[in-house]
């Protein structure tokens, strides 16, 4: 296994698709010029919209999606692997898939993943989210072969479901992608600790590109795009402003971490507790 450089982008997306794509592309070009082989983008990289009607209106079928075409062309132009954190893809019955794509340097789509877990929460003080009203959840986990190992895919709220990542690791994934638009409220409390926990539990590198700043409808996201080692060390943190971070990735450290603590091999059956 050879080393490579991974970069995570941090953007402040608006509800203007063209401007968002251009902003992400500028950062990707910079990261590639600095040596990045794999460039990962956050959730909703091409569109941060609010309200079901607005989201559905601006979503596009996959085969017509302007942002997908744009990023496939970008991958060819810069000759890098791109992970498109998520795009809003119009599917059946007026619903939308929150869909990730992995794109090879040839521009070919190598994997798709639809976000499984819907962010339906009430954080208090009027901060309410109901993704299930607009988005159709995915129903399968996805891993994809890269030149350096396998990348397991997830999106944002999936982070709170550790069995997904354990399943990806047990299926042979060495790296985990967690593109996100984490709220500022939950990010301050949980973002760093959850990402480090997923790395430690699985012995995987974790790549977590992020949205940051203020968006339409006064929505606020946390930022802090992270790269975390299989031992749980934070290798890079983008803090609070748009930009990108990069780290040298040594796939052999995945094996090293798992040899030290082989918990993926230590599952035991157990009976579930009863409810009184």
From TrEMBL:
Highest rank taxon of the organism: Bacteria
- CN hydrolase domain sequence ranges: 4-251
| Keyword Nuclease attached | no
Record keywords: Ubl conjugation included? no
**What are the recorded GO MF terms, alphabetically?**
hydrolase activity, acting on carbon-nitrogen (but not peptide) bonds, in linear amides
CDD domains assigned: nit
Print the keywords alphabetically. Answer: Hydrolase
The record's section on PANTHER family has:
DEAMINATED GLUTATHIONE AMIDASE, NITRILASE-RELATED
For this chain, the family text in UniProt reads: Belongs to the carbon-nitrogen hydrolase superfamily. NIT1/NIT2 family.
Protein name listed in UniProt = Amidohydrolase
